[in-house]
């Protein structure tokens, strides 16, 4: 198990992972309060300002309880690559360690979590403006879905790891392939992780998780999610932006464009979110022996989490 490997000299990092709506935010905040920690977000949707309700961003009260990093660091029309996220996350983790606190990497975006935990090294190819412009034109002609299908033909492994709705990452993969003549998936390196990692996986029975998803989406809509999308569009942010292609934002933009009723949009958001949960469990497999899974519905879940962290930190101090 990676959390117990011999990692002398490596600094501790606790990763709190799991599917949407499982309870990562409240659990991670409670862990940070008990263990003198700070949170580094590894959720691609929390990066963007003005996208609060639909991303279930921690509330002002929650942010006041525990310091968070990598939330609200970009506008919705800014592009943050995986490499930029890695740089900022590594810097935040180092800052937390420098102050004698425990960093918690928290999120459900599989690629973001694994990039830090596994020491991914993205392809070093700099942006290719002319090629990117040509690919953008191609996207406009055939659509983002068809673009992803082309990527699957050229590099099935890369396509399998890129969400079909993530047009920005699809474009980047094609850019690297066409510029280098090599598969994108073959060019991602891996460096030894500088961290000693405990992977804490949070889970719930699937029926309960789906019920929580439905209730949360209903609560988001009641809290003004539609108005949030309306304000983003009124501010000039196009619904075609990668940030606004996120589940929920795209469907509510379609409703505002007269393409879906509000009930249809809500139903589609719930369906897509359940599908997203299944993809999250593909990233974080329940059978993975390197993940210490905790069912939050079970009595003693908090005690199980604290026991795992205490054992991990004891081993880290001995290592």
Describe the overall structure.
The protein is of the alpha/beta class and 319 residues long. Helix content is 50%, strand content 12%. The chain contains 13 helices and eight strands. The strands form two sheets. A six-stranded parallel β-sheet has the order 3-2-4-1-7-8, sandwiched between helices. Helix 5 (129-142) packs across helix 8 (167-180) and helix 6 (144-154) packs across helix 8 (167-180). The radius of gyration is 20 Å and the shape is globular.
Helical proportion, percent range: 40-55%
Rounded mean pLDDT score? 90
User: What is the distance, rounded to the nearest whole angstrom, between the alpha carbons of the first and last residues?
Assistant: 15 Å
Name the overall outline: globular
Q: Gyration radius, to the nearest Å?
A: 20 Å
Structural class: alpha/beta
Order of helices and strands: EHEHEHEHEHHHHEEHHHHEH
Salient structural properties:
six-stranded parallel β-sheet; 319 residues; alpha/beta; disordered N terminus
Summarize the helices and strands and which ones pair or pack:
Elements: E1 11-17, H1 24-34, E2 37-41, H2 60-65, E3 68-69, H3 82-98, E4 102-107, H4 110-117, E5 120-121, H5 129-142, H6 144-154, H7 156-160, H8 167-180, E6 189-190, E7 195-203, H9 206-222, H10 225-234, H11 249-256, H12 262-283, E8 292-295, H13 301-318
Parallel strand pairs: 1-4, 1-7, 2-3, 2-4, 7-8
Antiparallel strand pairs: 5-6
Helix pairs in contact: 3-4, 5-6, 5-8, 6-8, 9-12, 10-11, 11-12
